[in-house]
Fold this protein.
Amino acid sequence: MAKLALETSDWIRVDPWESEQETWTETVKVLRHHYSESLRLLQSKNELMKNKRPIERSTEDSLSYQHSVLPELKLLCGADFLQTFKTPNLWKEEHIKEIVEKFGLVCISRAGSDPAQYINESDLLRKFQHNIFLVKEWIQNEISATQIRYALCRGLSVKYLVPDSVISYVAHHNIYTEESEQKNEGDLLQPLKLHNTTVNPLND
């Protein structure tokens, strides 16, 4: 569905690596994978430049080769995502630290969420707040996956909220129906299952 939603985009691509894993994968492991891939591509590019004869290099290539910098990778999320760090047993403390210290976050504003407050209430987030970028959306868009699934489950139209190709895919595969949602009702997120902790399920 992500591929269908982005098939007209010329600057966003979908990487299927996480969905191809046999089991649920922790967020920090996904970030490590993509960062390693970025490093691999950079090294391949540098090797290619090194093997080129100077006359074959453009000025842009030469400057890029001489001043290559390590890639940066940030986790893009809604501002309410920061609040999930406080949910007992949902995150490992060392994973939160690695995410905010090594990678960083770009948090998009969301109605009802106060990311600055979430940061101030956490010693760890406050320590690395220089690596957490808060982005204010001046045109608010409060559409969420939870709301879309809620509408589909009740047979309501989601036209103009998601691409027509995604709507067709959902209908063809008969997903997000009342029956399928009931099967997952009350189901815990995987890390909470591992800790056998009873808390209210999170919405996205």
